[in-house]
């Protein structure tokens, strides 16, 4: 029996995650009252329902009763019921944006600002986050990427790290992405833009990759960047960080930055973390008339 307790911040994707788990074959219950957790667990573990995978959401909608979750988890433990906690999180700016887009009211901010409700909730669920087996930061995740992360855990049984690295290529002329933690400028590398035959291509094409890397500086840069990230990541984890966004920028975000982003993405693939890649501006220069 796999018994998953889904919790986290309102707006971080708990309902979406629960729907995905249901599609994966889990018997799912949304907003289970904390007091019923041991009873429901007993039913599940006694196989009184014909399932071997169960997921329930327990969150701030329980109100003050949520603080009793620790005691109920101890009951589950004493009864020999093994459980896992999946915690969905996102930064405050993203949560506010999602609430404003959906025009829903935060459960702790019915007569107050959304930001105030989010801050209150974060304090109230902090103890659950500390107990979590898996933490997924959905700040920069697309829906399909969240599904991929859940599949790693609950279908493929892969080793999963709560730390997610996003490699993000971009063009400086379109602005530095506001959520980047580290920004690297690769405009020192040879620019394929000035070759009319190469200009329409992108850093995903081998001809561009060969051109950018031909001088040898690109290879040296990748070596040094890989070494730096391998040094920094454990320190970020020690500081409680769960998501690192590494920005790789060139002028238009189409050639050099894409090439280097792809290169470092491949190199980090052997690390015990979840690594994803995004090319923000790769299509922009198809319509841009400037350099």
Can you characterise this structure?
By secondary structure, the chain is an alpha/beta fold. The protein contains nine helices and nine strands. The protein has helices at residues 14-23, 37-45, 69-78, 92-102, 114-131, 143-154, 206-213, 217-238, 256-268; strands spanning 2-8, 27-29, 53-57, 84-89, 134-137, 164-171, 182-185, 243-250, 274-279. A five-stranded parallel beta sheet has the order 2-3-1-4-5, with helices on both faces. The protein has a four-stranded parallel beta sheet with strand order 7-8-6-9, covered by helices on one side. The longest helix is centred in the last third of the chain and has 22 residues, at 217-238. 36% of the residues are buried. Residues 287-291 have low confidence and may be disordered.
**Major beta-sheet overview:** 5 strands, parallel
Query: What's the shape?
Result: elongated
Beta strands, count = 9
Strand order of the largest sheet: 2-3-1-4-5
Give the count of helical stretches: 9
N- to C-terminal distance: 59 Å
Cα-based radius of gyration, to the nearest Å:
22 Å
Considering the chains and any ligands shown, give keywords for the structure:
291 residues; alpha/beta; five-stranded parallel sheet; four-stranded parallel sheet; 9 strands; disordered C terminus
Quick take:
The chain has 291 residues and is an alpha/beta fold. Helix content is 39%, strand content 18%. Strand 2 (27-29), helix 2 and strand 3 form a beta-alpha-beta unit.
